[in-house]
Specification:
The protein is an alpha/beta fold. The protein has helices spanning 2-12, 43-56, 119-128, 137-146, 167-170, 181-190, 195-224; strands spanning 15-16, 24-29, 32-37, 62-69, 80-81, 85-88, 94-95, 108-111, 130-134, 151-159. The chain is globular and about 50 Å long. It starts with a helix and ends with a helix.
């Protein structure tokens, strides 16, 4: 989403790169060229966005940066998730990120186009070793591995089951990750009691995007240092 790329653009002082695609940026990290792009939400847009990026530039390493949903309520908001593997829930394909930085990896990141909630779904995922939910990483990983390009992922917990992120909350954003004003207005009218929780969730998302960007930049910097 645009909110996920914003901290990267700001910290690396990236400039607009419309030739690469919409909501794309380029610049450098310690003298090495960097390109950042927003794919949009879901596996289909993630696939298309990654293919567009790799066709527009010669990329040495793809880094997925953004937020992830938690599968339990104990993990602190803002916790960095560095999975050992990423699973496409629809195809059961398993992908392994390339090491980047000195972070310890653990658990599974579960990629799905479906909003998962409820004790039944989440209990089953936890038993599998799932520690986070997202909607793009497995799709990005498949494009990269098909082309022989290493990839890594830095995602940070932005919400947990108690935050009740359901289909109505998901539709507050368009598929490209931009806000949907009509749905936001409708939600505010029909769920007035949820407004404080939504404001808190917005702050948590901002915190998570910042921490994801910081972690990814630090790891890339360490990997490219002499």
């Amino acid at each position: 989403m645009p909110i996920e790329v914003k901290p990267l653009v700001k910290r690396l002082r990236l400039g607009s790169a419309p030739a690469i695609g919409p909501k794309s940026y380029e610049g450098d990290l310690d003298g090495r060229p960097v390109v950042a792009t927003v794919t949009g939400m879901g596996t289909a847009l993630a696939t298309a966005g990654t293919e567009r990026l790799l066709e527009a530039r010669e990329i040495a390493h793809v880094v997925v940066v953004g937020i992830t949903g938690g599968v339990e309520n104990d993990t602190t908001i803002g916790t960095l998730v560095m999975p050992e593997s990423v699973v496409n829930s629809h195809t059961d394909e398993v992908f392994t990120p390339a090491p980047l930085g000195d972070h310890q990896t653990r658990g599974i990141l579960w990629t799905t186009d479906v909003i998962l909630s409820g004790a039944g779904h989440l209990d089953g995922l936890r038993e599998k070793g799932v520690i986070g939910l997202d909607m793009e990483t497995a799709a990005i990983a498949k494009v990269c591995e098909t082309r022989g390009i290493p990839w890594s992922v830095f995602r940070v917990i932005s919400d947990r089951p108690d935050d009740e992120v359901d289909e109505a909350v998901f539709k507050l954003s368009n598929q490209d990750g931009t806000p949907n004003p009509a749905n936001i207005a409708r939600y505010m009218v029909t769920h007035p009691g949820r407004l404080p929780a939504m404001a808190r969730m917005g702050k948590n998302v901002k915190l998570a995007t910042e921490r994801a960007a910081v972690a990814a930049i630090a790891a890339c910097r360490a990997a490219t240092s002499p």
